[in-house]
Amino acid sequence: VNEAVVITGMGAVSAFGSGVDKLWHAVTTGQSGIRRVERLSRLGLRVTTGGCVPGPEGLGADRHLAIARRAIDDAIEQAHLDVSTSAFIWATGLDTYVDESGRPTYRRSGDCFAALAARHRSPRRLVAVACASGTQAIGEAAWLIRTGRADACVAGGSSAMLDAVYTTAFAGLGAIAVDKAGENPGDACRPFDRQRRGFALSEGAGALVIERASTAQARGVAPLALVTGLGTSEDAHDLNQPPADGGGAELAILRSLADAHLEPDGIDVVNSHGTGTFVGDASEAAAIRSVFKNWRERPLVHGLKGAIGHAMSAAGAIEAIVAVMTCREGVVPATVNLCSVDEACSLRHVVGSAERAPVRRVLSSSFGMGGQNAAIIIERVCQ
Amino acid sequence: MFVLKAVMAKDLSLLEGNPSLWRKVRRFNGPGQATVAVAVEAARAAADPSRVGLIGLAACQSGSSEMFATIGTLLDRPPSDPMAFKFNPTYTLHALDNLALSVVSIELKNRGYAIGLGGTAGQCWDALDIARARLAMGDEREFLIFGGDQTGRGEGSVVAAALLLSCEPPVATTARVRIDTLEWTRADESDRPPTLHAAAGLAEFLGVLERRPPGPFEYRVPPDHGNGLDSICIRGALA
């Protein structure tokens, strides 16, 4: 079996609220969803900003479930999918310590996954490759379908780690943007910028229904886009930082191109990982320059984390949804807070405001701490 | 697919003869150390360890002793005290779900296909399924699956397992397990909830096969090693 793999449903929950429309409108109009987070401010931490999902009441384990279920239900509804016929490949992130009644309480990632997975058929897989999880979950789902091992699959990821434990832990690693006196919270995360100093932690979820083109057609559901390639790799370099030359990331990108039977010039847009960390952004830019020899002109490169923050295991899934919208609308969002491009991050960045462009394919990539890399290719459906 | 080598550990003795590896993992918790040790040991039998497909099974028991100590500190000290939050999450298996996968890839200088599964019950069987499918498709020639568990909060006991799998029968006669199919069938609600584990199920599976005579086998995964939703059956043959 080697049938086309299509996306027929999407659901997104982010710092801009619930719904793909809200997310798309915000990222194409240059907004930032990063704000002062009251529960962090109260504790007097060094980091008090983040991308908090508005809406779901309360905190704790139920909050994560509510965020994830909203995205999944939206995707299923759009695809008119009988959920009992679909596999489930998800990333819930790590075990977390959530803020319940003012005190962090332990919550197992497996409990959240089990609650989400119960209504699906097998395979039901929980991907655990740190920040690359959401992207790899989508790629693995596409591989399952392409090889005839499932007809449909709900894939993506969710995360609700915006609490004292994780903001402080990431601050200890120098990965997160600590507060700067007088700065607007929305300016904290600055991907590829000279002034970048780390990411802004956020929460959210992204869900996609991925299925065989023929099953979508049989239900009369129009595909939103295709998934045509997956590449993964390991840095095999260091637990805490990627190699300066981006060698592992480059391998993942090249493998995704090979999987899609594409040359680099077949990619119009790169939806970058772009966390805003000093080492990570430079490494990623090096990888992109190495793959795309004509990088000064194309592909267009943009990143979302200045706008929505880093939603960890959900990040790749939310970014894939924006990649689908980019293909469909022919609009490439600008990288929020990218004002002065660092020389080490030179690329054909989209800065200032969104650009209109004919877009056939978007490469969406994610690179996990510890050195797991994943890249997928999203392609416009040609009428 | 064939099991080329299986390594199980209930302690850290594998590290005693490998001081170089011990230095690299000495700050991990017990399951993390044991997982890396069994994986590296199993990889010795690979034709080319740098090209083996890697599947790490993230631990899914409750948090490590280091993590709980840190959280305890967080709760007990004023949050404005910067020392209250000082810890490095890469030294606790549960703070970084892909820790063992990263360490093994570094140790084997492996930049190939990799995936981490886990954090929930029964993912080791999905790992076997991924390896079987990708080996059958010719994407990789060999796969290494590895994971480790701890029981309860704190160090507890350590169980780690690693399997080196190949699409081709082994030249040597030491490997005797061939896995042909894995099947998931929706089960009625079980009164035995699954144990959250990364490697304990694999270890018991291999232990059971060790005691069986040559010939075809059918292994029904015990409910406490399943995923809580399906009846899982593995079929193959023992040489």
Give a written overview of the molecule.
The complex is a heterodimer of chains A (383) and B (239). Chain A is α+β, with helices and mostly antiparallel strands. Chain A has 11 helices and 17 strands. Chain A has helices spanning 20-28, 38-41, 61-79, 109-117, 133-146, 164-172, 213-219, 247-259, 278-291, 305-308, 315-329; strands at 5-14, 17-18, 35-36, 49-50, 87-91, 96-100, 103-107, 124-126, 152-159, 204-212, 225-234, 269-271, 300-302, 331-332, 355-356, 361-368, 372-379. In chain A, strands 1, 2, 5, 8, 9, 10, 11, 12, 13, 16 and 17 form an 11-stranded mixed beta sheet that branches. A two-stranded antiparallel ribbon of chain A has the order 3-4. In chain A, helix 5 (133-146) crosses helix 11 (315-329). Chain A is globular. The mean pLDDT of chain A is 93. Chain B is an alpha+beta fold and 239 residues long. Helix content of chain B is 29%, strand content 26%. Chain B has 6 helices and 8 strands. Chain B has helices at 19-25, 30-43, 65-76, 99-108, 123-137, 200-210; strands at 2-9, 53-58, 114-118, 142-150, 158-166, 177-186, 215-220, 230-238. An 8-stranded mixed beta sheet of chain B has the order 3-2-4-5-1-6-8-7, sandwiched between helices. In chain B, helix 2 packs parallel to helix 4. The longest helix of chain B is centred in the middle third of the chain and has 15 residues, at 123-137. The two termini of chain B are 13 Å apart. At the A-B interface, strand 7, helix 4, strand 8, helix 5 and helix 6 of A face strand 2, helix 3, helix 4, strand 3 and helix 5 of B.
